[in-house]
Amino acid sequence: SQYEALQVTAGKHGDDLRNTKNEITEINRNIQRMQGEIENAKAQRAKLEAAVAEAEERGELALKDARAKLEELEAALQKAKSDLARQLREYQELMNIKLALDIEIATYRKLLEGEESRLAGDGVGNVNISVVSSSGGGGYSSSGGFLGSGIGGGLSLGPGMGSGALGFSSGGSTKSYTITTTSSSRRSVRK
């Protein structure tokens, strides 16, 4: 009958409704699960972003620290080079002074030897000593009769009066000496 047909149809719709409710419930569970996964993913992403930002900050700080240390080392290197250059200049100046003093000592020694020879009655000829200083490396040259070995730990002039010349080059000013001794009592030193 029509009533029974309606009951059957209503039963089918009831079953469909229950199935639909079950599907909706399952979908809701899936949605909740997916929302949880999304929240977890967001939290993980936030942690990763924070870690990246922290790593970048640490990297920038490390880079700044390395640059500061590099600048400090470069400044120390420049200071060391400057100190070395200053010490080399001071050393060269001291060497120039020492060599000039050695030359003056040898010059006066030669004068004394000439005076002794004059007092002993030995006539001597003129003795000329010239000292020339110029920029560049140190060294010396000699010519004439009385000059002996040179400027190792100083300058020594050998015995035996006669005319001679001494040339000395080292960074500094120019000096020249002319020494004249004679068999008479006259003696002149010009500097």
TrEMBL record:
Record-given protein name: K2C7 protein
Family that this chain belongs to: Belongs to the intermediate filament family.
Single GO molecular function: structural constituent of skin epidermis
Keywords: Coiled coil, Intermediate filament, Keratin
GO BP: intermediate filament organization; keratinization
Domain IF rod: 1-119
Domain of life, source organism: Eukaryota
Region (Disordered): 168-191
Any one GO CC term of the record: keratin filament
Annotated source species: Leiothrix lutea (Red-billed leiothrix)
Coiled-coil annotated residue ranges, if any: 17-97
InterPro entries membership: IF_conserved, IF_rod_dom, Keratin_II
Gene: Krt7
